[in-house]
Specification:
CATH class: Alpha Beta
Largest sheet: 6 strands, antiparallel
Distance between the termini: 33 Å
Strand content: 25-35%
Helix content: 25-40%
Radius of gyration: 15 Å
CATH topology: Alpha-Beta Plaits
Number of domains: 1
Length: 165
């Protein structure tokens, strides 16, 4: 990889079906194995309560920092292929149970608003399961249009979020 063409991106990983901690570890390896991607950092795993319907298992979440040569839509489609390979079924149900959810949290310092992708995610500021693992690996980060990660975390209660060993 040529360092001058790399973009730093942050990815959110989560899931609550079919051994979610193992799904996330497997997805981490799959992402790191993609040509044009280099892992920079990976947070601890966190246990979180479901955001949507409460009649589903609790989630496991993490955040990964990567350097990538891939354009943002190529990265998105690559992550969606990894989700599918891990048994993700897109039912259209919002916040429903899933084997694996891979989100692009940040791509360089870009603000992206496309029909299939918004980065940074509009609801990111209130999501403990994203902010706390992200803060663990990038405490000084400034999120475009959102502000300092340390400020966001100061105003975001943990809501049952716990770090796993």
């Amino acid at each position: 990889m040529n360092d001058h063409t790399l973009t730093t991106a942050y990815l959110g990983l989560g899931g609550n079906l079919a051994a979610p901690a193992e799904q996330i570890k497997s997805a981490r390896a799959a992402i790191a194995a993609i040509p044009g991607i280099k892992e920079l950092a990976f947070s601890s795993l966190y246990h979180s309560l479901p955001m949507g319907p409460k009649d589903q298992p609790d989630y496991v979440n993490a955040v990964m920092a990567i350097a990538t040569e891939l354009g943002v839509l190529d990265l998105l489609h690559t992550l969606q292929a990894i989700e599918s390979a891990h048994g993700r079924k897109r039912t259209g149900e919002r916040w429903g149970a899933r084997t694996l959810d891979l989100d692009i949290l940040m791509y360089g310092d870009q603000r992206i608003d496309l029909p299939e992708l918004t980065v940074p995610h509009p609801g990111i500021g209130g999501r403990a399961f994203v902010l706390y693992p992200w803060y663990e690996i990038a405490p000084e980060l400034i999120i475009p249009g959102k502000g300092c990660l340390s400020e966001l975390i100061a105003h975001c209660p943990k809501n049952g979020l716990t770090q796993l060993d």
